[in-house]
Amino acid sequence: MTLCMPPPDQAVIARRAAIAAALRAIVPDGVIDEPTVLKAYESDGLTAYRQPPMLAVLPETTAQVAAILRYCQAEGVKVVPRGSGTSLSGGALPLADAVLLGMAKFNRVLEVDYDDRFAVVQPGVTNLAVTQAVEAAGFYYAPDPSSQIACSIGGNVAENSGGVHCLKYGLTTNNVLGVELVMMDGEIVRLGSRHLDPAGLDLLGLVVGSEGLLGVVTEVTVRILPKPQTAKALLLGFSTVEGAGACVAGVIAAGIIPAGMEMMDRPAIHAAEAFVRVGYPLDVDALLIVELDGPAAECDHLAAEVEAIATANGAVSCRVSTSEAERLAFWAGRKAAFPAVSRIAPDYYCMDGTIPRRRLPDVLTRISELAVQHELGVANVFHAGDGNLHPLILYDANQPGQLERAEAFGEDILRLCVEVGGVLTGEHGVGVEKRDLMPLMFNETDLAHQQRVKCAFDPDLLLNPGKVFPTLHRCAELGRMHVHGGATRFPDIPRF
């Protein structure tokens, strides 16, 4: 591992057997302490970095989660929450002196209310399973990350995941109504409600995207939507990336908000087509997939509008889906783009940054120049409608120095995103991958205020340490005063 993580607390590691025994008293059949089995948890989707946890525990009830956290806080033991482990930013990377809290057994859909359009699910339910649970009644769950067959709703809440349809329907934060959250001291709280925009402080908005630093989610109330009457996709090929980027801007400028608008460059197109064989054009430098949904007449009208805008911006090919099967085929290649690149490189490093749409052509040109500079390949797949880039850096981890070059290439891409007015992440989160780049976007005062929020929820800094913040100050250094039972700690010390 080339990444620096907090040094393990050897005193905690020395108590490993006692900690395992105490956790078994809480979850009799859910504690894993065998080194060979723990290796299954040594990394998440960012597989370049690996570290087996000290222990893993798999609770089944909210009461067990509360008891585990209460015990760990009392004993000063760090906790790393984990869903399905599909995080691409190292958000679920274990620590050598921490308990990994696996939420996979929280896998039930608890309630569905079609009249009020919500579903209550446990955090281990996969993203796609929510839609599968309600589709027979004509409903679906809008956020759809490419990993939706595997990623969990709890992880989606932690990272504020998006997907190809987030342009029109929003990210996870726009589709979550409430959560049940267990605090580090074992307190169980409910944030949000079963309707939009409850009164009071928006603590739910604070928790969604908090990357497991504030508490452990044990229940999620999500918004479900009626399936659109019609959905139609256009497959648009361009001879230049600049033309595709101009088309994206033209569609949005015309007041058209597609359900999804995705772009792939030539390497990604070829890899995806070889992988799924859906008929992507191979003689173009950029491919746009634009999906429109709603009443049939509206879809037909907007499809004609989009095709005209594409033609005006140099589109050299256009296919409009004529059936549901063909629409899904158009998306199959995009959904499979990440695994597809494994056909052209042994390893890839998936980046995540967001830029203003108008800068797409410039940024893609700069990324190509950086590829030459770092002597590595790159395939670009991204949510063109909202400027969320996913460059896939191609490398071979078995070749000395290539991982380090891939990391440097990725860092340069993220610096470029911020330079052109964008941000470090769109949907993958900060985790450990972007942690040390946070000062590019935030000054010391900004980061200190963010860390004060962390202290308010987790005063002993035991939840998912080493993530998000490049330098995690102790709460006392930030001026936090802990009050318990109406009294401060060490009341004889003067305070200012």
TrEMBL record:
One of its GO terms (molecular function) is (S)-2-hydroxy-acid oxidase activity. It comes from Caulobacter ginsengisoli. Its cofactor is FAD. Its EC number is 1.1.3.15. It is an enzyme of class 1 (oxidoreductase). SUPFAM superfamilies: FAD-binding/transporter-associated domain-like, FAD-linked oxidases, C-terminal domain. Pfam families: FAD-oxidase_C, FAD_binding_4. It comes from the Bacteria. The lineage of its organism: Bacteria, Pseudomonadati, Pseudomonadota, Alphaproteobacteria, Caulobacterales. Signal peptide: none annotated. InterPro entries: FAD-bd_oxidored_4_C, FAD-bd_PCMH, FAD-bd_PCMH-like_sf, FAD-bd_PCMH_sub2, FAD-linked_Oxase-like_C, FAD-linked_OxidoTrans_Type4, Oxid_FAD_bind_N, Vanillyl_alc_oxidase_C-sub2. Keywords: FAD, Flavoprotein, Oxidoreductase. This is Glycolate oxidase. Residues 49-227 form the FAD-binding PCMH-type domain.
